[in-house]
Write a structure and sequence with these properties.
The protein is globular, with a radius of gyration of 17 Å. β8 and β9 form a beta hairpin. The two termini are 18 Å apart. It has a single domain (3-222), classed as Lipid/polyisoprenoid-binding, YceI-like (Lipocalin, Beta Barrel), CATH 2.40.128. Helices cover 6% and strands 46% of the residues. It has helices spanning 107-115, 203-206, and strands at residues 3-4, 26-28, 39-43, 49-54, 63-77, 80-95, 127-137, 152-160, 163-175, 179-189, 211-222.
């Protein structure tokens, strides 16, 4: 039996330096977590990856990189995901050196800046968390997706720093007897979680796009 349904993120997680795309995840107030019923599937953290992409205003100087999922699980019943949650270790946030081409700049410097109190303040808030609140069928005539082949809409509470909001985004997920795989790509507004460089109206913060593109590839195995 093979069915498709949604799952994740986390992951979510992000970069905090802007983004470049139009298909934003719907953002709302925190909601009640879905009741997780059925068999448990453990997230394979070695086979799961989260990518981020961000730019300055106007889309120039794109930056991109990865963050690792540190823990998580899904529950599946009758071939459908019923709930789950994921933790992302923000200490593992990295900037890809291929995205920093200026001779006077280093990827490691941006990585350190993103982890600093200017953005994620990783020492105080080392973990981002995503908790599934709902899964519904995806209708391509009503929704836009950056990732072709989306099968479902996933809703979940995303916690960054000390703020939690609910986001909804398309995902392509396949559920087999002993394995779940999921892929997604969407955009969030970093400022909704209070992530701003210096002050909200400062020239420095204005120059950075608020949009951050998130992508993930997830694998989970039945316990």
């Amino acid at each position: 039996m093979k069915q498709t349904v949604p799952a994740f993120i986390l992951l979510l997680t992000l970069a905090a330096c802007g983004g470049a795309s139009s298909d934003k995840a719907k953002t709302d107030e925190k909601q009640e977590a879905a009741t997780a019923t059925g068999a448990a599937y453990a997230i394979d953290t070695t086979a799961t990856s989260v990518q981020w992409r961000a730019t300055h205003k106007g889309g120039f100087a794109p930056r991109f990189g990865t963050i690792k999922v540190s823990d998580g699980s899904l529950n599946v019943e009758n071939g459908a995901i019923t709930g789950g949650s994921f933790d992302v270790n923000l200490h593992t946030l990295l900037t890809d050196s291929a995205s920093v081409t200026e001779p006077d700049k280093k990827a490691s410097d941006l990585t350190g800046h993103l982890k600093s109190p200017d953005f994620f303040d990783v020492e105080k808030h080392p973990t981002a968390k995503f908790v599934i609140t709902g899964v519904t069928p995806y209708d391509s005539t009503k929704e836009k997706s950056l990732l072709p082949g989306a099968t479902n809409l996933i809703s979940g509470n995303l916690t960054l720093k000390d703020s939690t909001l609910n986001i909804t985004f398309p995902a392509q997920v396949t559920v087999n007897e002993g394995e779940v795989t999921a892929n997604a790509k969407f955009v969030i507004d970093r400022s909704a979680w209070g992530i701003s460089y210096k002050t909200e109206g400062s020239p420095e913060n204005w120059a950075i796009s608020k949009d951050v593109e998130i992508g993930f590839s997830l694998k989970a195995a039945k316990k």
